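Homework help board

Subject: predicted structure for assignment chain

Our instructor gave us this sequence and asked us to write out the predicted structure in token form, then describe one feature. I got the tokens but I'm not sure how to describe them. Can anyone check?
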Amino acid sequence: MRVLVADDERMLADMVAEGLRRLSMAVDVVYDGVSALDRLGVNRYDVAVLDRDMPGSTGDEVCRWIAGSGAGTRVLMLTAAVGIRDRVEGLGLGADDYLTKPFAFAELVARLQALARRSAPALPPVLERDGIVLDVGRHTVTRDGLALALSPKEFAVLHVLLRAGGRVVSAEDLLEQAWDEHADPFTNTVRTTVMTLRRKLGDPPVLHTVPRAGYRLGS
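My token output:
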């Protein structure tokens, strides 16, 4: 899952981003609405976490832009306002969910995962293929009943490949969906991560390289 976190409380935004990265999410962070609009115009995000009261363009304005863009990005609005009227206004702008500050990180994660499942087509919280079972909520992976110890990036790559349903996924698409904007597209990071993931998945081989096309998961 690729997430944009936009909040002018820098410490909060950075802490949220770091926590989400530990859960294998690709996260970009900005601290104002103008920067949020810039990122949204360039990258595709599954979910945007927006503070309502950002400088420059407000979270409301960013949310309105997302709703009118047709990009399919889900919006989780953050605010210190706790009144029903404030929540209704935010949802009326096109937000998919609303969370008041302060909040529990576990609740934020649960809401993000629920929003991601609303994507089209909707994806189940547990993905299975060729004996591999990936549980997004529990952040676990097994193959033929045996637990696999994957790094956050290996988990993210496997998630993307499972979502593809056996279709070939290019290295560029993996980089877009499993890494944030700081990833260097000219490094071997995707190939290296796929290589270690293939080794951890074990035999018989299930993760295949398709020459000049990308990678495919399936027997």
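Reply (TA_rk): Your tokens look well-formed. For the description, you could write something like this. Residues 34 and 57 are 5 Å apart (CA to CA). That's the kind of observation they're looking for.
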